[in-house]
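Supplementary Methods, section 5.1.

A reviewer requested that the exact input to the structure prediction be made available. We therefore reproduce it here, unchanged from the version used in the analyses.
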Amino acid sequence: MAVKIRLKRIGKKRAPHYRIVVMDARAKRDGRAIEEIGKYNPKAEPSFIHVESDRAQYWLGVGAQPTEAVAAIFKASGDWQKFKGLDAPPPLRVKEPKRDKQEIFNEALAEAHGTLKTEAVTKKATAKKAEPKADKAPKTDDAAKGDAVEAKVEDAAPAADAAVTDAPADDAKA
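The structure derived from this sequence is encoded token-by-token as follows.
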């Protein structure tokens, strides 16, 4: 029985994907395979190639003949050179990792607002959400409640003074 290593087409119209399979030479293109040893997607950028190297070496060693397309894939992945004992080919191109959506958004936001350093989720907003839980005073006695109210009033007073001092400075600039 003549054994070939060839491509078995899967996928939709105009979107081919292939499996690299070992088949009887007399079998149909998409017929029953003896073994699947890899995958190939020519439409991806760069092309996706995955070959189980040990199985490819085994089948080449026992005399299976690769088709021209599979031989080119084996040369690109380095399996053909490994079988023949030649030097390894240059490494395959690898797809760039996808950028984080929040990072892209923050860059666009900074670009739209000039050189301001802004973020999609500000630290102030998250801090405000965390503060109310921390400010709750224990309800053990009335004296503790009074101390908490005085502390809040004292915190509010410097903020009001800052607002008053900022207002004339803005008027002076204008």
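The mean pLDDT is 77. These observations are discussed further in the main text.
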